[in-house]
Amino acid sequence: MPTKYRWYSCMKWKDKRDLMMISTSHVGERGSSNKPKVVEDYNKLKGFVDQSDQLSAYSPFVRRTTKRYLRAFFHFVMQTAVVNWCRLFCDTKGTIQLNEFKMILVKTLLRDIFSEPSSPRTTHKLERSESGSKESRRTCTGCYKELREEKGRPYATNHAKKVSSRCSKCHKYFCMECFLNYHKKCV
């Protein structure tokens, strides 16, 4: 609905949102897709700054509950950086929506924090049992297995080392040497 004045015209057009424009070169004629000609020309000629502002407006980064200076920081620094990254990503890899790009970005940044530990070093640890008395000592699993294969079960039962240290994960009793051999890939 254009309103024409002496040397400019004002228009209001609604697609997804209300759009109000002032033009000195367009009177109010319609373009090919029933859009006003001024809107078509603007979309064709707009620069990256307008596109990034438009993308930022569709999916705001910070809600109104945050303090004003934080909102300004996150808008000007973070939102602008994310929109620029998305633009570079789209130029090299293909088109993607800004919200999808944000999800990929967040998952990528948090992958290292929430992933499983890459090395299982922290999973198996040799720890002393609670009470150090002779009753709490058990047969070393590695020594027993080795002696049983060489000399039989009765000999291994009587001659395997007695230890009070066990693995924190698999709860088997080991001497230090057998623990290192048994959990070679973990240590």
How would you describe this structure to a colleague?
- The chain has a three-stranded antiparallel sheet with strand order 1-2-3, with no helix packed on it. A two-stranded antiparallel ribbon has the order 4-7.
- With 187 residues, the chain is of the alpha+beta class.
- It is built from seven helices and seven strands, in the order βββααααββααββα.
- The chain starts with a strand and ends in a 5-residue tail after the last helix.
- 47% of the residues lie in helices and 13% in strands.
- It has a domain at 126-182.
- The chain has helices spanning 37-45, 48-58, 68-93, 98-114, 141-151, 153-159, 176-182, and strands spanning 3-4, 9-14, 18-23, 126-128, 138-139, 162-163, 165-167.
Descriptive terms for the model:
alpha+beta; three-stranded antiparallel sheet; two-stranded antiparallel ribbon; 7 strands
Layout: helices, strands, pairs:
Elements: E1 3-4, E2 9-14, E3 18-23, H1 37-45, H2 48-58, H3 68-93, H4 98-114, E4 126-128, E5 138-139, H5 141-151, H6 153-159, E6 162-163, E7 165-167, H7 176-182
Antiparallel strand pairs: 1-2, 2-3, 4-7, 5-6
Helix pairs in contact: 2-3, 5-6
Domain PiggyBac transposable element-derived protein: 31-84
Pfam families: DDE_Tnp_1_7 (PF13843)
Organism: Haemonchus placei
- What's the count of strands? 7
Low-confidence stretches: none
Placed side by side, the strands forming the largest sheet appear as 1-2-3
- The best one-word shape is rod-shaped
| Biggest pleated sheet | 3 strands, antiparallel
First-last Cα distance: 75 Å
Strand percentage lies at 5-15%
Whole-number radius of gyration?
35 Å
Q: List the helices and strands in order.
A: EEEHHHHEEHHEEH
- What is the share of helical residues? 40-55%
Q: Total number of helical segments?
A: 7
